[in-house]
Specification:
Number of helices: 9
Shape: elongated
Distance between the termini: 187 Å
CATH class of one domain: Alpha Beta
Strand content: 15-25%
Radius of gyration: 78 Å
């Protein structure tokens, strides 16, 4: 582009000198030159002037873009400072409004902004980032100074600090657009209370307590609070709240760990002892225990202070007071030692529990009387123990013998019970079987009786029917006999005559069909029987009637054969 401008500038004197020479030398040349200048040369010059203007405008636009652009990237903020405007007062540390000079309260977050560099200056800084497992505390750098004894900044309804000091509350893990000219952010670790501990809270910023002589104060007062924190992670402002850990787990302390623990006996002998005390801080009274037994030289730990202040003095006091009531020889015996140990544990509990310390277990593990009395007493005690052991063995043997006898008796009773149970079982079974058989027999008897009754009824019915049939037959026979009797009477009481008459009637219709060939045929035998009967009857009549024999009907003579034929003919 610079070369193009330079070429155009260099062409202008050449064209001008040509025109002068043309004017001096002759009109025709000058006219040609003038036409040439106003023709193609004029258009080229105009194009050459437009290109530099466009390029210059582009350059100026780019420069203006660069000097007015505020590019705020991700995770950044821009702090604006006004260079022209209303002047600040001597008491002002930051511009109270956007028309005043100085650092502005308002920030520019991520994005692109345009500001007049003559009026504004800016500074792009990273945002405040609180990592996981941390917390932030804001400290106000502007505003009025806090009052005497105060270090917390006062905030308005928007949460902005209006005075210098520590801003109440904390910043949880995250990213915050904080103006570095207004606030300073300190990163702290949150308060972590392990399992088995209690957190004793001390309020450092509240107003003073109305009753300063109290150990614990209310939540709205400065001092150690009544409420403690449970195990866990707590995000608390360390400038406002202090948390001290109190171990509420079970702890064990050896009485002879630091010094010889002992006491003089009743007879003046020195008796040494050793024991173990297991204790813990009552979780409900952790704040009271912390206030009572915490010392600055011990730091936040109060375990040693509890041992030195509470446990050891009470243990020594009990041992010296109670131990002096018994002789050295009595501490070797088991009964005195057991009673001493029970009383020691109970006394330690009574003395420590009102102070918020629970005694889980207090044991006297070793009692060492002087060796001068220990050995003979020990031997005598061993002899007593052996005697008791022998007696115990005898009692055990007697108990075993008695147990064996009782066991045998129990087994015998069990056998008797088993036998009786078997007898009862067999008897019951036999009775049940007998009852079943008797029931079946009764059922069969009832069935047989029913069958017998039915048979008798049936026999009587058959007999009645037979009697009825016999009566009918008898009546029929009697009726028929009566008819025959009447018919026989018609033949003068001669039955044979009536029989011949009936026979003749039956045979009369079929007589012609009978073929009687000989006198030996069956039919002729039947007729012969009738002939013999007739002869006998006629002979009888002859004897009964007069000699003059009446003539036979028809005037025919009755011979043996001729009589039959005559009767047959008469029947015909």
């Amino acid at each position: 582009m610079s070369d193009l401008v330079r070429v155009v500038v260099q062409d202008e004197p050449a064209e001008g000198s040509g025109a002068g020479r043309a004017g001096a030398g002759g009109g025709s040349r000058g006219n040609r030159t003038g036409r040439g200048f106003s023709g193609g040369g004029g258009r080229g010059f105009a194009v050459g002037l437009k290109l530099p203007g466009l390029l210059l405008a582009a350059v100026l636009g780019l420069v203006v873009w660069q000097i007015t652009l505020i590019d705020v990237g991700s995770g950044q903020i821009a702090v604006l400072t006004r260079k022209v405007g209303l002047d600040l007062k001597n008491s002002d540390e930051i511009a109270p409004s956007a028309q005043h000079k100085g650092v502005q309260r308002e920030l520019l977050t991520e994005g692109r902004y345009f500001r007049n560099p003559y009026v504004w200056s800016w500074q792009v800084v990273p945002q405040v980032e609180i990592a996981s497992g941390e917390m932030g505390v804001k400290i106000s750098l502007t505003g009025e100074d806090p009052g005497y004894g105060e270090f917390l900044a006062k905030v308005d309804e928007r949460g902005e600090a209006v005075t210098k000091g520590i801003v109440p509350g904390v910043l949880n893990p995250g990213r915050y657009p904080v103006n570095p000219f207004l606030y300073k952010v300190e990163v702290h670790k949150p308060t972590t209370i392990p399992a088995g501990y209690k957190g004793v809270v001390t309020n450092l910023a509240a107003p003073l307590a109305k009753e300063p002589n109290r150990l614990l104060v209310d939540a709205s007062e400065r001092g150690v609070q009544k409420t403690t924190l449970e195990p866990g992670t707590h995000y608390l402002n360390p400038y406002v709240t202090r948390v001290d850990l109190v171990d509420c787990r079970s702890q064990r302390f050896n009485l002879g760990q630091e010094d010889d623990m002992g006491f003089p006996s009743k007879d003046g002998f020195w008796v040494s002892l050793d024991g173990v005390i297991e204790f813990r801080v009552n979780p409900e009274k952790a704040a009271d225990v912390y206030v009572l037994f915490n010392r600055s030289e011990n730091g936040p730990l109060i375990d040693d202070e509890i041992v030195q202040t509470v446990i050891m003095p009470n243990a020594r006091s009990f041992c010296r007071l109670q131990g002096s009531n018994s002789s050295g020889r009595e501490f070797i015996q088991g009964e005195t030692r057991s009673a001493f140990q029970k009383a020691f544990e109970q006394e330690m509990r009574n003395a420590c529990e009102p102070l918020g310390i629970e005694i889980i277990q207090a044991l006297i593990t070793t009692i060492r009387p002087p060796e001068k009395i220990a050995e003979p007493v020990r031997r005598r005690e061993i002899a007593k123990q052996e005697e008791l052991q022998y007696k115990q063995q005898v009692l055990q043997q007697e108990s075993e013998q008695k147990l064996a006898v009782e066991k045998a008796m129990v087994e015998q009773k069990q056998a008797l019970v088993t036998a009786g149970r078997d007898v009862v079982k067999s008897t019951t079974k036999a009775e049940e079987e007998q009852q079943v058989a008797l029931t079946l027999a009764n059922q069969q008897l009832a069935v047989s009786q029913l069958k017998l009754d039915a048979s008798l009824d049936e026999a009587m019915a058959i007999e009645a029917r037979g009697q009825a049939v016999a009566d009918v037959v008898r009546f029929d026979n009697e009726a028929e006999a009566a008819g025959w009797k009447k018919a026989v009477q018609a033949f003068d009481g001669d039955g044979q005559a009536f029989a011949r008459y009936v026979l003749y009637q039956k045979l009369s219709t079929a007589w012609r069909r009978m073929m009687v060939n000989t006198a030996d045929s069956p039919m002729m035998k039947i007729l012969d029987s009738f002939t013999e009967s007739a002869a006998k009857s006629s002979a009888g009549r002859k004897n009964a009637v007069p000699a003059t024999e009446p003539a036979t009907p028809g005037g025919q003579e009755q011979t043996q054969t001729g009589g039959i034929e005559t009767d047959v003919n008469l029947a015909q």
